[in-house]
What does this fold into?
Amino acid sequence: MPLASSASALPLVAGILVFPEVDVLDATGPAEVFGAVSAATASAGFRVPLLARGPAPVRTTVGVRLLPECTVHEIEHLDLLVVPGGDGSRRVVADAAHLQAVRTLTQRASRVLSVCTGARILAALGLLDGREVTTHRSALGEIAERAPTAVLRPRDRYTDNGAVLTAAGVTAGIDLALHVVGQTYGRPVAAATARYLEHTWQQAPLSR
It folds into this structure.
């Protein structure tokens, strides 16, 4: 059953965390999905602010710069928080102040989604303990060390633990975002959004 009525007049807020050396598609893939819902269907869809520690443009792993809409301290409520990966996720984990800022964001969000190696940030915050988890294949060992009680699902495209969801590498974030759209507004809305994006939705689990 959808979590929100498709007749709702207000879009939900799906914040996308960005930081220096974030993977561009980890961040923009889910942003494109959530942003396309209202264009593809009659649903209210989502507002998709980019959130960063500061207001300056953020350089991604491929050099594209993303402009945050607001800082992590300015946003008061999030229905969803997307935590992408990339080389910069290591720096977030190593920076206590930055990690605490992300912790504050997760506490304001109803649901938290990691994409690819964004899982290392959630692991550092203790959010993956005891939960089913996937991530980019290159980071599985690290996640096992950071969250030893997590149940790794390396063959799953994404996992859903209710409040915490994880996606495998890069493009899997698009499929997880569609999964969330389906839960929120109904599967027909998610399917219509995938068609609008001309994307073949790979649903999880692919195998167990």
User: Anything to note?
Assistant: The chain has a mean pLDDT of 93. Residues 24-40 form the longest helix (17 residues). The chain is about 35% helix and 20% strand. The chain has one domain: 12-196.
